[in-house]
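Practice record 12: protein with adenosine-5'-diphosphate.
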Amino acid sequence: MTDIAETQILDALASVIDSASGIDIVGAGMVSGLRVEGGHVTFSIEVDPAQGAALETMRQAAESAVRQVKGVDKVTAVLTAERKPAAPAPHAHAHPHPPQSNPMPRQPIGRHANNRKIELPEIKAIVAVASGKGGVGKSTTAVNLALAMAKDGKRIGLLDADIYGPSLPRMMGIKTKPTQSEDGKINPIEAWGIKCVSMGMLVAEETPVIWRGPMATGALEQLMTDVAWGELDALVIDLPPGTGDIHLTLVQRVSLTGAVIVSTPQDIALLDARKGLNMFKKVEVPVFGIVENMSYFIAPDTGKRYDIFGHGGAEREAERLGVPFLGGVPLDMTIRETSDDGRPIVATDPQGVYAQTYGAIAEKVWQAIKIAQATPKAAQ
Ligand code: ADP
């Protein structure tokens, strides 16, 4: 029996969930070195040895899932713990089940087989803006951060990867659709001095966009490769909230320079329980820091500041999580009105207090970009 398709094996393995991330082991890119020889299937699962005993349960679950595939008579799953071949710390060798002498390729495989990095040589830095959940002001922050980064002639692109609820056209006041360049690429739309692309521009606004995982990641890949960005000093990517297929595709296929996490004060204490922070850390994408949005309230009539959730909590929490605190943005009616009305505050009131607030955050992001670019990946 030799005609077992790899996709059948991957389908079976996709039913096995990594308890640490809550994501299936194929989607999480943990499966590598899949080999089918006759009815004997071998593969490795890349794991974090810190998970301990749960790993053996997962390994056995993976083996028995594959054993159900027709034609399979023997399954060997091994756990591997090496991310990088270069000099790992001594304890990183502690494989609960060390790979046998046969060195398996470590490149994780997924349904889309192609996991090579997308080359974007014209883009000097890529910054992802993420949040644990929706409605915390991630898009508002991404838009105003991108605008604040576009100072001193810096060329900035803004990609709305939130294909489930694209908000960039609304926030940037973009009503036109992008045109195609001669070589068939999408020309980004220039608004308020930065280049913008969003799924929202490619589909009609009223069309409900229902994406299945592979469609969504395919659309993102297309957006990453088929846009004529030209030379950019930085591309800011507004991610969908939480973690999912889009995030995985992005961290696997695109060389992110770093990530900015947006949170409200109420949710900041929950951040480490959420997966976002860990996801970036796991794949060695530096987390540039946390922006606390709706951090405090300034009464429009008196100008008095109210620290509704107390003062300094976010800084303390960021410190506890070991990530920098990039700054707090108040809950303010003008921020809401301008961002919902397509007139982002950094662009329309560049001398105002909020342009300064976002400007200070942008400054820290530029510094973090510089450090990340000067630091070799393995040392981060
Ligand atoms: P997300 O991208 O996290 O879903 P949005 O950026 O779309 O969040 O913001 C959700 C709503 O909150 C929008 O109406 C937006 O205008 C508003 N908003 C975001 N940040 C602020 C703020 N600092 N002050 C007032 N309103 C805000």
